[in-house]
Amino acid sequence: MSETEWDVIVIGAGAVGENVAGRAAERGLSVVIVENELIGGECSYWACMPSKALLRSSSALRAARAVPGAREAVTGEVDVAAVFARRDSFTSGWDDSSQVEWLQSAGIDLVRGHARLAGERVVHVTSDDGAGRELTARHAVVVSTGSTAAMPDIPGLAEATPWTSREATSATSAPASLAIIGGGVVAAEMATAYTGLGSTVTLIARSGLLGSSEPFAGELVGSALTDAGATVLIGRSPVAVRRLSDESVEIDLDDGSTVSAAEVLVATGRSAHTADVGLETVGLTPGDWLPVDDTMLVEGFDWLYATGDVNHRSLLTHQGKYQARAAGDVIAARALGSELSTEAWGTHVATADHAAVPQVTFTDPEVASVGLTAAAAEEAGLDIRVVDYDLGAVAGSSLHAEGYSGRARMVVDEARSVVVGATFVGPDVAELVHAATIAVVGEVPLSRLWHAVPAYPTINEVWLRLLETYGRPAQ
Question: Beta strands of 72-209 (E only): which ranges?
């Protein structure tokens, strides 16, 4: 490839970078994407897809055991080797050939190597063999380098060769025992996955489980993990870690106790993957998150964009891809001199990032939510009413599983009579969240939601029960 100049240069070929490049290319711009790892990035090979593949088999088995008639047909346990083989099918054995073919079919050029900004609209790429080349963008450079696992400063931890989410999702076997440091989504999901695969799991969560969710979410997930055989230690902190052998790690806790395991997984958050992308050459600080406006333009620039985790708006693949669609469209519009739609909810902005983000945590039970929690809504100064309902009390739930247990919450902005947040916790609630997302994004008045009749008998009947609990308008 002899070209040196394109309309748009995208640094990072994960799902987010691919979407920016695709949208800009569809609108007639020339685009090159630069990547030093696998095309498809974290979500395809070390996060969304492999992690859910590790979770699904145990989830399906638990679901079968919860229904009489199916329960009696279950004669064995999860085939762990088959689970890992299925995981490998989703990562294509960590081969990105099909992703490269997609780039080619979309008319997007690919440069392999490590990209660093080298000045305004200039990117320097170093290939694996040490050769360097300089790329220039006519209109925009987009940083889509994502995030990396944060490593807390615990004595001995780094030397103990801990797992991060990458090692947890790409492991070739389940360890006999696994200690997990952290209480967020990755920690809870991997605790669920490896408990289901037969590992003895100890979860060490200093500040509780799923702290950004409604409090009952972490409580229900923690109880389920305990019932499944995991040990959940809340309010404890590691103070030292020692690797004793290839199959033995000890973790000293602040209460004087010690946890022993074959492996330790660190899942305490994420850091911006910007330490070595040349931010200093354009006056920014390496390692920092990149603050952007709603068109994904980095503050203080008219050519530099940041999409996905790296801008720290919402560290979720689907939300990053949403940002990418807006960014690709707005870059093309600005390059072509087209009219911009940058008002709230316009074509060229990512308004939903602020208060309408959906998320599913694939634990058992699942946690599905969108918008603001009750605490976040109060912090935002809203006059709210919180409506809770027993999710196991609707007819669809009782049909779905014996002893179905769960909870639903609706957060209502009383001034506007609209839903600003919803959370569902229970088996298979992931499919409930999009209806809630539409209600939040569409700012559908409660008076109109009464006319959205849930089909019977489905778990979605909980929407009617939430409205009934809130109370029907008198007129």
Answer: 109-112, 114-117, 122-126, 132-143, 147-149, 177-181, 200-205
